[in-house]
From TrEMBL:
It comes from Amycolatopsis rhizosphaerae. It catalyses: GTP + H2O = GDP + phosphate + H(+). One of its GO terms (cellular component) is plasma membrane. NCBIfam families: lepA, small_GTP. Keywords: Cell membrane, Elongation factor, GTP-binding, Hydrolase, Membrane, Nucleotide-binding, Protein biosynthesis. GO terms for biological process: positive regulation of translation. Residues 13-194 form the Tr-type G domain. The lineage of its organism: Bacteria, Bacillati, Actinomycetota, Actinomycetes, Pseudonocardiales. It holds the Pfam family GTP_EFTU_D2. It is found in: Cell membrane. Its main location: membrane. GTP binds at D25, H26, G27, K28, S29, T30, N141, K142, I143, D144. The keyword Membrane applies. This is Elongation factor 4. It is an enzyme of class 3 (hydrolase).
Length: 617
């Protein structure tokens, strides 16, 4: 079979661009691996599990964070074709990246686990793909599993897509069964790319990654014209121009080529050092005789969830800054700015696309940069309108305009989809109601499985919603959420005071009805964690000047020398030295000395979850 590795400008009618969309763990990476093997792109002995997931952390968590793409040769009816498989991230936090990757395709393989059926992200991704008018090939995976029920789930899929259950392909990505036939069908069913080869060049960036040696590697799909090396290109959203150092294809390692034509997918290297100069969704054109109109839909990545990150050891602050700067080279959506906290010292206020993005970032900081971190409870972005008409954007409880008359607070809202066995409907509804949810609709996917749609404040989801959902449904529910505008809500800022002094790291913006609960919980937790002082310490929770909860740490006289009867002066000195050492790690709030560990412990139990363990949604 001819390999197309070095050929350029493949005629569009021989190209098929497609992606695999699936709920997490339904086998997307395994199927991609099988395709690499079957098309001969990766030799058997070089094959390693999940070839396309490059980052270690991806492989460990088993999730795909960054899209990768690969060119596969495939022959159907004696005709050589070029398939571009575009790997999409599956998680809600990266919906924008998913939608860009879909834009680079004409078809999508909708992969569903034959033992589980459709899940929340199957639907979310399917709707995105239909929105882009992609041809959908429905496929059931894992048919080798004893628990597989392909007939039931073929009917479910056919029902959602509106096709015949007989059209749903059945494969096992693990054994390879049915994968050849799937590749054949991809060539037969997916339409070839359309585009004008003589028009000014336009290519869409659907991914860009930072490589330590080569700078930013930008993945593009050419829509019109062609992109050739050694010309200057322009990024249409910013107008910035760059020298093209290399153009190439991935098969499965990068290979330089003489250019990319209509419908082709490949990469560019320009020597820029920061992915924010080469952003997903942007259009690339030539500097001279370039296109005038960009391809549609570029959007700035917008952080939705904020959290303070502090080094446990204050002297690590410069390392934390450096690490964040390095991560930002590869993550256009990550934002950070310095902040200080009475309780935690110097740190950074960081913005993330969502909770998983936060967890991954913290994981990488700890693992790749060896930092020990404490993160404050995450919060969303609020828009506060004062009675004088002025508006404030609040990404940090400490920015809350206290002391002013507030007329309205707007909070971000999400549209949430939950799919679960029907027996859990009651439990799910109860949970959503307790989180200020509004039922939008409910549908049965099959006799015993339902889809529930809710409007929920994003702030309620980013706390412990997913964990509560899982425990109430014994792990059977799946969840997906998307932005759905904002709503006016009755929100207040609750401060926690030690001896009348607010402890900034514990302030939170919560719904009025939840304020007492939050105040009581934090006050009693701190009472247990803070050691007794030589005087009485009141712990209070307050909304503005109004105290809503109070606990007291009773006074205790701590005399370190009490144990030291006898007159051994050197022993006395040693004990006093030790006390001084201990004091260094104390933070002083007002007159109260609190060991940093107490703050850390109080915060970590209010975090969304233990670190590292719950990436999957
Ligand atoms: N028995 C069986 N197991 C499979 C099959 N395909 C995938 N798996 C297993 O299912 C699990 C998830 O597969 P992945 O390929 O990592 O799933 P994914 O959809 O890529 O997951 P993300 O990258 O996290 O979105 C792995 O343990 C695979 O070994 C199959 O056909 N049969």
């Amino acid at each position: 079979m001819t390999t197309f590795a070095d050929t350029t400008f493949t005629p569009p009618e021989l190209i098929r661009n497609f992606c695999i969309i699936a709920h997490i763990d339904h086998g997307k990476s395994t199927l991609a691996d099988r395709m690499l093997q079957l098309t001969g792109v990766v030799e058997e002995r070089a094959m390693r599990a999940q070839y396309l997931d490059r980052m270690d952390i991806e492989r460990e968590r088993g999730i795909t964070i960054k899209a990768q793409n690969v060119r596969l040769p495939w022959q159907v009816d004696g005709q050589d074709h070029v398939l571009h498989l575009i790997d999409t991230p599956g998680h809600v936090d990266f919906t924008y990246e998913v939608s860009r990757a879909l834009e680079a395709c004409e078809g999508a393989i909708l992969l569903v686990d034959a033992a589980q059926g459709i899940e929340a992200q199957t639907l979310a991704n399917l709707y995105l793909a239909l929105d882009k008018d992609l041809h959908i090939i429905p496929v059931l995976n894992k048919i080798d599993l004893p628990a597989a029920d392909p007939d039931k789930y073929a009917a479910e899929l056919a029902n959602i897509i509106g096709c015949d259950p007989g059209d749903v392909l059945r494969v096992s990505a693990k054994t390879g069964q049915g994968v050849k036939e799937l590749l054949d069908e991809a060539v037969r069913q997916i339409p070839p790319p359309q585009g004008d080869p003589d028009a000014p060049a336009r290519a869409m960036i659907f991914d860009s990654v930072y490589d330590t040696y080569r700078g930013v590697v930008t993945y593009i799909r050419v829509v019109d014209g062609k992109i050739t090396p050694r010309e200057r290109i322009r990024m249409m959203s910013t107008g910035a121009t760059h020298e093209l150092l290399e153009v190439g294809i991935i098969s499965p390692e990068p290979k330089p080529c003489a250019g990319l034509g209509v419908g082709e997918v490949g990469y560019l290297i320009t020597g820029v050092k920061d992915v924010r100069q080469s952003r997903v969704g942007d259009t690339v054109t030539r500097e001279r005789h370039g296109a005038k109109v960009p391809l549609t839909g570029y959007r700035e990545p917008k952080p939705m969830v904020f959290s303070g990150l502090y080094p446990l050891d204050g002297s690590d602050y410069p390392e934390l800054r450096e690490a964040l700067e390095k991560l930002q080279l590869n993550d256009a959506a990550l934002t950070f700015e310095p902040e200080t906290s009475v309780a935690l010292g110097f740190g950074f206020r960081c913005g993330f696309l969502g909770l998983l993005h936060l967890e991954i970032t913290r994981d990488r900081l700890e693992r790749e940069f060896g930092l020990d971190l404490i993160s404050t409870a995450p919060n969303v972005v609020y828009r506060v309108v004062l009675e004088d008409g002025s508006e404030h954007v609040v990404t940090n409880p400490s920015d809350w305009p206290g002391g002013f008359k507030i007329s309205e607070v707007h909070e971000p809202l999400s549209k949430v989809t939950v799919i679960a066995p029907a027996e859990f409907i009651g439990a799910i509804m109860e949970l959503c109601q307790s989180k200020r949810g509004q039922l939008l609709g409910m549908d049965y996917l099959s006799e015993d499985r339902v889809e529930l749609r809710y409007h929920l404040p994003l702030a309620e989801i980013i706390f412990d919603f997913f964990d509560s959902l899982k425990s109430r449904t014994r792990g059977y529910a799946s969840l997906d959420y998307e932005e759905a505008g904002t709503q006016v809500a009755d929100l207040v800022k609750v401060d926690i005071l030690l001896q009348g002094e607010p402890v900034d790291a514990f302030s939170a913006i919560v719904h009025k009805d939840a304020a007492y609960g939050y105040g009581n919980k934090m006050a009693s937790r701190l009472r247990e964690l803070i050691p007794r002082q030589q005087f009485e310490v009141p712990i209070q929770a307050a909304i503005g000047a109004r105290i809503i909860a109070r606990e007291t740490i009773r006074a205790m006289r701590k005399d370190v020398l009490a144990k030291c009867y006898g007159g051994d002066i050197s022993r006395k000195r040693k004990l006093l030295e030790k006390q001084k050492e201990g004091k260094k790690r104390m933070k002083t709030v007002g007159r109260v000395e609190v060991p940093q560990e107490a703050f850390v412990a109080a915060l970590s139990t209010s975090e969304p979850g233990d670190k590292g363990g719950k990436g999957k949604k």
